[in-house]
Amino acid sequence: MAMFPVQGFVDGDFVVVLALVDDTDPMPVVAEKIAYHSVGKRVAAQDRPLKVKRDGVVQPDDATLASVGAAPLDVLEVVYA
Amino acid sequence: MPALPRSEWYDLTRDMNWDLTYVTEDQAFPPALSNSFGVPAEDWWTWDEPYKIAYTEYVHNQAGKDQGLFSVNNVVSRSSIFENLDPGWKAAILAHYGAIAVAEYQASIGEARMARFGRAAAWRNMATYGTLDEMRHGQLQTYFPYQALNKEPRLDWAHKAYHTNEWGIIAARHVFDDMFTANDAVSTAIQLTFTFETGFTNLQFLGMAADAMKVGDLDFGALISSIQTDEARHAQQGEPTLKVLVKAGKTDTAQNLLDKMFWRAWKLFSLLTGLSMDYYTPIEHRTHSFKEFMEEFINKQFIDQFRDFGLEKPWYWDQLLNEMNWVHHAYHLGVYFWRPTVWWNPVAGTGPEERAWLEEKYPGWNDSFGKYWDVMGDNVRAGRPELTLPETFPIVCNSCQIPVCTPAGYAAGYLDSPLPYQLVRDGRKYTFCSEPCQWVFEQTPEQFAGHLSIIDRLLGGIIQPPTIEGALAYMGLSPEECGVDGNDYAWATATASKTA
């Protein structure tokens, strides 16, 4: 386990933020950690699960940043499924 | 005053150019301080300023200006005018003083460099006045806020700001160091006096002075008017420098210098002036939206001016026009949400009337930007204003040093992708907010590569502890100095009452 800084934003938000995640977090947890800084603060919450997009591709829920070979400060987009 | 008319002696006494024999050209004018871009010395001697003035006249004029200005200040500083100013206007002038006052003094360094390393005696003569002008502007814009410290202690940021690592000041310092504090004389003439002063600040100061008078800020209005008259004169160093470069076949060089700095100036301008014009100035005193001001005064006039010299619009012109629709709205959201990181109290400027004005000036604003304010307003009305405050940091651009707001441009329908631009160079990852910002970086990467953004400093362990509180302390902001909502959330309750 290692602290992993990423650049993240929730679809519809206005700014890219720094989010600290763990490289072994499954993608839903990564999505929650990014969304914490946005959903309910600037972006209205929706009753749908959150997904992580990397390089334009939605990542499977069982993947981690370590397993997909992500690098620190990669840009991750969080979208509602 | 001289017995002869100025026209009979001015050119003779001004043109003290001579051939160098004891030292080489590069020894007298080192390229790092005075890049000739290959133009021969004699060609530079054709440099001719459009506005002539002798030293006696200069001193006479400046003394008169100061006498009038200090008379106004003397009266106003004893009045209650400052206390009665609108909170939004106070935000605008606190931001202005912090971002501009010491930068003006630093501009005197750039002017002094031209006064010594300018390539023609006529130019060095004019830059000497420019040096004195900028010293005057630095002094005035620290003295005037000093006079009102008993009314607003954070006015000391007029002097303090540039001695801190506050994020906005890092952004301003980054561009101003490039533009004048650490620039060569020829590039300074093109990038400071032609691009920034002629293109942006000369017109902006006219507008700001008029706005100040409308809101009743006589002190600031008189100050800015007085400064603008100096700017209008010394900004004219750019035009003859440009003419020499173009005549010598260096049009591409001039175009590159202009393109780089026009974009850099735009980014800072949209952050400072965009917020002031569209959110901080009280709605009843607004004459133009920021976009209208850019279209009517900056873009049109400036294009006409550089086309007259055979230059073209910068290659990114369409991207600039695109950003004028949305980027400063995103910056305002960011400054408001991260308000503890600035030294003024941002007003939201999004009550019902303001939102109607924004929708009129920027059709679609309510759908694209109003939605963020809706969520924040809901939180305020639910008694949870802490949800309108940050618990992390925005990513900032490694070129302009301003938060990356590409998602806003995408969400508003102006960009094809919400993703920032990224570049890996020598193993380090750089992030940019726009294609032109990356282009600026790549023009001279060795100049910019070593700079650490505020986020790089946080991740690199320079900011300790790496928390919001640690970052505020690093930025020089004590709890008493951190920005708070300038209207105590009146915008949110006003929305609620109208909705109800």
Class per helix and strand makeup of chain B = mainly alpha
Strand order of the largest sheet of chain B: 1-2
Give me the strand/helix succession of chain A. EEHEEE
Helix content of chain B: 55-70%
Strand content of chain A: 25-35%
Work out the radius of gyration of chain A: 11 Å
Report the sheet-strand fraction of chain B.
under 5%
Report the average pLDDT across residues of chain B.
94
> What overall form of chain A do the CA principal axes indicate?
globular
The secondary structure category of chain A is: mainly beta
CATH architectural grouping of chain B: Orthogonal Bundle
Short précis:
The complex is a heterodimer of chains A (81) and B (500). With 81 residues, chain A is mainly beta.
Question: Could you walk me through the main structural features you see in this protein, from its secondary elements to its overall organization?
Answer:
The complex is a heterodimer of chains A (81) and B (500). With 81 residues, chain A is mainly beta. Chain A has one helix spanning 27-35; strands at residues 3-10, 17-22, 50-54, 57-58, 75-80. Chain A has a single domain (3-80), classed as TmoB-like (Ubiquitin-like (UB roll)). Chain A has one helix and five strands. Chain A starts with a strand and ends with a strand. The model of chain A has no long low-confidence stretch (mean pLDDT 96). Chain B has a two-stranded antiparallel ribbon with strand order 1-2. The longest helix of chain B is centred in the N-terminal third of the chain and has 31 residues, at 87-117. Chain B has a single domain, classed as Ribonucleotide Reductase, subunit A, CATH 1.10.620. Helix content of chain B is 61%, strand content 2%. The mean pLDDT of chain B is 94. In chain B, β1 (421-425) and β2 (428-432) form a beta hairpin. Chain B has helices at residues 10-14, 25-28, 41-44, 55-76, 87-117, 121-147, 157-160, 167-181, 185-215, 218-234, 238-247, 251-280, 290-308, 317-323, 327-337, 352-361, 365-381, 406-411, 435-443, 445-448, 454-459, 468-474, 490-499; strands at residues 421-425, 428-432.
